[in-house]
Amino acid sequence: MPRNQRRSSGLSDMELSKELVRVLRHGKYDLAMDCNGFVDVIEIIEAFSRSGFAQISCDNIKRIVETDRKGRYELKMDRSQWKVRATQGHTVQVENPDLQLLTDAGKYENIIHGTKMSHWNSIALAGLHRMNRTHIHFCIGLPGDSQVISGMPPRCDVAIYLNVPKAMRAGLKLYESKNKVILCEGDHKGRIHPKFFRKVVHIGVGEMPRSRRRSSGLSDFEISKELVRVLRHGKYSLEMDCNGFVDVAEIIKAFAQNGFAQISCDKIKRIVETDRKGRYELKIDRAQWKIRATQGHTVQVQNPDFQQLTDTGKYENIIHGTKMSHWNSIALAGLHRMNRTHIHFCIGLPGERGVISGMPSHCDIAIYLDVPKAMRAGLKLYESQNKVILCEGDHKGRIHPKFFRKVVHIGVGEIRFSNPDDYQD
Predict the structure, then answer these.
(1) Torsion, CA 99, CA 174, CA 89, CA 14, rounded to 10
(2) What is the spatial distance between Cα 371 and Cα 197, in angstroms, rounded to a whole number?
């Protein structure tokens, strides 16, 4: 598969739609966005062209918007220029996204948040949290119900029904987007407490008891997931020092305030000591245990104690793992750190000697970095405590495809691609 084989034919509509989501919801390419979230279509086309996407026209983008069944986008003509925006789903702040405040608690029979069963125990205790997004999302029914356009991914198997009158009485504000997604910023911590859940249904199975885990507490796996949310992504907005450390006592207190029972310092220490991927680091500071994530942050950490990699030959391979469904976009536009502070690499394939972390198990594409070439171009690589290699990318947070030494479809073979000399920076 030559790297530039798609330059003449362009991306498929699905791939183009995914790229529009990255631009309009998440700020990829750092294009100028007005206070309502609109971006000039011409600016998007020029950014796509600079990133190697060929034959993307205004008509292509208009077709994507007009045929999108979920109503993710909105087009308008402004001073003879087409502009487009995402109707909801943002991680970037939009000053005035034209959402309609929902004031009638009975306007919709059901307002539902969809999630996965693997997340339920944590949600039952700590509630829903908007995480990196600006809002928590709800739909006005289950997928397939009348009037439901968007708001619940198809992989969801748990439906959380919001008690709308109770939430409104408590001061939670609900908004409706153009595509009938209901949005809520949550409370001052960005969450919706479980007391506002009217009922919870395991789709296709039946209704679930909300508080079934309070007496026994969470499993180690579930606590580890919650620690990731706290230490990498800033859940509960706990105080974090310049090196990314948070007081364990403060974490335990936050867990208790959010309904997590029987979480102790010893339990957290055990999770850190037994974590095979080395995600966490513990230390004693002034007789207080503190903990941090070793990498993977979306929150900014001033001085995370990474070691800069200066020896280009220290590791034989430095590899980024991804999925085949992302490859065509990456081959043209490169790797992008998105909401994280760094792009992640591992020092080999999972299972190889010395490899601790850095590549999710679901990856089927391995992108090998040309380390000498990347360093000569000024890209800085850092090594975390658990041997994950990190790179902020260039000024736009990306690593250009010209720095890929080779790309392998794991278990299949090498994906051959040509040098993108025609690529415009």
Answers:
(1) -80
(2) 50
pLDDT tens readout for residues 74-122: 999 998 899 999 999 998 989 888 899 999 999 999 999 999 988 887 8
Rounded-to-integer distance, Cα 174 and Cα 310, Å: 51
CATH architecture of 100-207: Alpha-Beta Barrel (3.20)
Asked if 13-86 and 220-249+263-293 have one fold, the answer is yes
Please give the class, per CATH, of domain 220-249+263-293: mainly alpha
- Nearest Cα residue to 239 out of 262, 248, 284, 270: 248
Give the separation between CA 306 and CA 304, rounded to whole angstroms.
Answer: 6
| Domain locations in the chain as residue ranges | 13-86, 100-207, 220-249+263-293, 307-415
DSSP bridge pairs for 162: 197
Reported as type and span, the H/E element at residue 396 is none
What digits encode the pLDDT tens for the residues 380-411? 999 998 999 999 999 889 999 999 999 999 88
What is the average pLDDT score of the chain? 87
CA distances, 59 to each of 9, 88, 121, 179 (Å): 15, 23, 46, 22
Residue 4, pLDDT > 60, answer no
pLDDT tier, 220 (very low <50, low <70, confident <90, very high otherwise):
confident
| Nearest by Cα to 45 from 10, 76, 79, 87 | 10
pLDDT at res. 10: 54
Closest CA to 399 of 421, 370, 419, 422: 370
CATH topology of domain 307-415: ADP-ribosylation fold (3.20.170)
Secondary-structure class of domain 13-86 per CATH:
mainly alpha
